[in-house]
Design goal:
434 Repressor (Amino-terminal Domain), Beta-Lactamase, 2 domains, 14 helices, 46% helix, MLTR_LBD, Lambda_DNA-bd_dom_sf
Amino acid sequence: MSSELGDFLKARRGELSPATAGLPDDGRRRVPGLRREEVALLASISPDYYTRLEQGRRRASEPVLHALARALRLSEDERAYLFELSGKDAGRPRRRPAQQVQPQLRRLLDDLTNTPALVLGRCTDVLAWNSLAAALFTDFALIPEDRRNFVRLVFRDPAVRALYIDWDYMARACVAQLRMEAARDPENPRLTTLVGELSVRDPDFRTWWGDHRVAARTAGTKDLRHPMVGELTLDWSTLTDAADPEQHLIALTAAPGTPSHDGLRLLGAVTAVPSASPRSAGGSAELPDT
């Protein structure tokens, strides 16, 4: 049965083109389809792990089978067959309802006129924000909702990336926080897609994800260099929504009397114009997908 599983995986990856999988094609492929290491990246597992699966030297867990089914774009029948070959119950991937920000939380965001604040949901999706947060980071309203993700912006948006004086340190922390979410919800298809995309498109993310470092999202300091108001040292803290513990309000503040406090007030003054959305504003665009 293990050889049948390996043959099935090889056949499916052989039929999936790099373009269909959202991967770059260097034009130097000797055989059609995806390479083993590309399937491993899309499924967020190590190439060695995937090779052992194809060779019948390793059994796959249910979360890995779910990830492989998504990476290989399997149909429902193919997915059921994959689980049957692996001796697992196919079941169906857990569909979780979209997160909705409570009206009280939205009002709180809008009332924080001198404090940049945003609400992050599962996988660091940006669910809501106030005008000062948009002025500080980017115009979230211009980003399609399904790509409005903070970690993706940190790695894929050149303007957001340029904000951070010590980008490496901050980006590593983002990856560690995302890894913590993966431990809590390993079968989340959105998380698997995000990790697969960033692993393929950014070598730093790929390396740091492989380090398996974890961190909780609690509090810290961000050192930013904003194009309009210069350098800012901002303390950030996290408030968890009691109605949905997977929603976190992130507020950024500066000590009164400091240049950073004055800079935030200046930023609020110069950007106090109607925005595209009452809870958005800002200004950059993601790198195009290639």
